[in-house]
Amino acid sequence: KYVLKNEFFRDLVLSICMRANKMITDQHSMFREANDPVIYVEKKREEYYSIFQKYCHGATSAVIFGEIICQKLKEPIEQSVYKKTARDLTDEMRSNCESLNGNRSNLEKHILKTLVEEEDFDKYMNYINNPRDHFKSFIRDEVSRYITDKFSVSVLPKMKENIELLQQKIMKAAHESTEHVQVNSGDVGLWLKSFTQQLSDELIFSEKVFSGVKHDDVDDFKLLENVIRKELTAITGISSRFSTETFPANLDYKFRPDELLIDHFCQCCWVQCPFCKATCTNTIENHHGDHSAPFHRITGLKGMKTAGGIYADWSITPDLSELPYWKWFVCTFQKDLEKHYTALFE
Questions:
Q1: Beta bridge partners of 314
Q2: Which residues, in sequence order, are CB contacts of 84 under 8 Å at separation 6+?
Q3: Which residues contact 16 (CB under 8 A, 6 or more apart)?
Q4: Which of 90, 253, 339, 341 can bridge 257 by disulfide, Cβ–Cβ 3.0-4.6 Å?
Q5: Helix axes 104-118, 131-149, angle to 10 degrees
Q6: What are phi and psi of 272, to 5 degrees?
Q7: Which among 188, 165, 166, 168 is positioned nearest to 178, based on CA atoms?
Q8: Where do the H-state alpha helices sit in the chain?
Q9: Do 303 and 341 form a contact (C-beta atoms < 8 A)?
Q10: CA nearest 186: which of 219, 217, 210?
Q11: The whole model's pTM is what?
C-alpha cells in the first residue's frame, strides 16, 4: 500500500508542465522557421545573390533556372542517399553480422557471451532487470562497430553507388521531360511538372519549392538539361564529406541502421518470468494466452520466490537443462547478489 504525498503531485505537475513547455517551444520554433519572412529571406540570401550575379553576367534564363533546380535538389538528394545507404547497410548486417543475422534468441546468445567476457555485474543486472534496454544498447554498439570496421570497404562504396544511381535517375527524368515537352509543344511548366513527378518516388521534391521563382521565359530545354548535368556533379559530392561521425548524425533518427534493427528485433513480448526473470519468447507484443520461455533461470536472480497474481499468467513447464550459465553467474557474483538484494543465500 502506498500513500501519495503532496510532493508527488507537485513533482508530477512540474514534470507535465516541463514536457508541455518543450513541445510548445519546439512547435513554435518550427512554425516560425517555416513562416517568418525575415528567417525565410535570410535563408534565401545566398541563392538570390547568386541568381543576381548570373543575370549581371548575361546568363540566360535556362542557365539560371537549371542552377536553381540543382540548388533545390541538394538537400533532397542528400537525404535520399543517406536513407538508401542506411537501408542497404541494414540488409548487409542482417546477412553478414554474426550477432544480427538470426532471430532474437540468436542475438541473446551473443549478448550472454559478451556479458561473460566482460564479467561486469552492473551490466548483468541491467540485462536481467531491463532486457529490452540492454538489447537496444547491444544492437547500437554492434552497428557502430560494424560501420567503423567496414567503412572504407562497404559503407563508403554503397554511398557512392547510391549517388551514381540517383544521378542517373535525375538525368533520365530531365531528358524524358525535355522529350515530353517537345512532343506535346509544352512550356517550362509542363517540363517541371514531368520532372518532379518522375522523381517523386526517389526524392522529397515537388513543384511547390519553385513558388516565387520566375521561369516563364525558359524555352531552351536542351540547355536546361545540360546545365543540370553539369551542376549535378558538384552537388552530389557528398561522399567527400561522408564519415563514421557524419553518417548517423545526418540521418533522420528513425532511418538509422541501429533503429531499423531495433525495430526488427524488439517488436515482441518483453514480459519477464516473476520467478526467475527469464523473458517471454513470444514474437508478438501484447499477445493472447500465457507467457512462456523454453528455459528458466536458477534461483537467486530475482532475490526471492512467491506465488499468485501475475504468476498465473505464465505457462512454466519442466526442462531438463542443467543451467550451467546461470549457475556460473550466481557462483561468480554471489556476494554482489547478496548485497544487491540485501539477502543471503541459504
A1: 291
A2: 162, 166
A3: none
A4: 90
A5: 80
A6: -105, 145
A7: 188
A8: 6-35, 37-56, 61-96, 104-118, 121-129, 131-149, 156-184, 188-199, 221-235, 246-249, 257-266, 324-332, 334-341
A9: yes
A10: 219
A11: 0.75
What length does the chain have?
A: 346
Instruction: State pLDDT tens for residues 99-158.
Output: 999 899 999 999 999 999 999 999 999 999 999 999 999 999 999 999 999 888 998 899
CA–CA dist 80, 78 (Å, integer): 5
Q: Which three cell numbers stand for residue 142?
A: 554492434
Task: Identify the DSSP state of 280.
Answer: P
> How many CA atoms lie less than 13 Å away from 304 in the CB half-sphere?
7
What are the pLDDT digits (tens) for 143-198?
999 999 988 899 889 988 999 999 999 999 999 999 999 999 888 889 999 999 99
Q: Which three cell numbers, joined as nine digits, stand for 327?
A: 549457475
Closest C-alpha to 180, from 216, 228, 209, 221:
221
Phi and psi (nearest 5°) for 316?
A: -110, 110
Rounded Cα gap, residues 139 and 161, in angstroms:
26
Contact status, residue 256 vs residue 126, Cβ threshold 8 Å: no
CA distances in angstroms from 24 to 29, 37, 93, listed in the order given:
9, 21, 39
